[in-house]
Amino acid sequence: MSAPKPEDWVALGILGKARGLRGDLWFRSYNDAVSSLGAGVTVRVVAPKAAPRMLTVQSLAGQGTGLVAHFEGIDDRNGADALVGATVELQRKHFPPLDEGEYYHCDLEGMRVVDVEGRALGTVLRVEAYPTIDALVVKTAKGELELPINTDVVRAMDVAAALATVDLSTLDLDAADDPRIAPDGDPA
Q1: Which of 82, 145, 170, 184 would disulfide-bridge 152, Cβ 3.0–4.6 Å?
Q2: Considering Cα of 145, then 150, then 151, then 157, what sign does the dihedral take?
Q3: What does pTM read for this prediction?
Q4: 53 falls in which pLDDT band (50, 70, 90)?
């Protein structure tokens, strides 16, 4: 997998239970790109057992600790119930611009990963968003390795070049997990 092209659809979150009788649904966002979902934005909604459909956001509002979405044309509980579990997608070209040094998780997939000496370690499969830190999940010759995204481990991320430079010396890796050590115990 690689970073999405501008015309690619990127999942922003999932629709939860219907809320009330007027077509509102709880929305769980996967990332901060949800800030681009406002009234009038057209999204693709992919329900588990239905063909994808294009819907226009009528509103997306905070309710307690969650978000509640309402789409044009979904005006009752039955319409909302049909969308429960659906993924909400937005084309990458409609994401808001970022400041220097910021990135969207979807842009990191497929990125090459090298250590500070320039040795190839693997490729980013995905980003895991944990409550306290995000982690790059890197496919190495030995399997998958999770690397916390912090300045001690991830020294540089060049999204345009699709290259992440990491310092594994700050991690407590055993030989079985360290991608710099070949299976026979010699440095790779």
Answers
A1: 170
A2: positive
A3: 0.69
A4: very high
SS3 168: helix
Asked if residues 43 and 54 have their Cβ atoms less than 8 Å apart, the reply is yes
Q: How many CB atoms lie within 10 A of CB 109?
A: 18
* H or E element at residue 165: strand 163-166
Task: Say how far apart CA 70 and CA 87 lie, in whole Å.
Answer: 14
Q: Assess whether pLDDT exceeds 80 at residue 122.
A: yes
- In order of their start, the domains of the chain are 9-94 (2.40.30.60), 105-170 (2.30.30.240)
State yes or no: pLDDT of 16 exceeds 90: yes
Q: Per-residue pLDDT for 183 more than 80?
A: no
Residues 6 or more apart from 129 whose CB is under 8 A from it?
30, 31, 105
Whether the predicted pLDDT of 187 surpasses 60? no
Alpha-carbon span 115 to 118, nearest angstrom: 5
Give residues with Cβ within 8 angstroms of 12, minimum separation 6: 29, 30, 31, 33, 34, 37, 43, 88, 89, 90
Q: Could you give the C-alpha distances from 18 to 59, 71, 89, 111, 137, in angstroms and in order?
A: 15, 12, 19, 37, 33
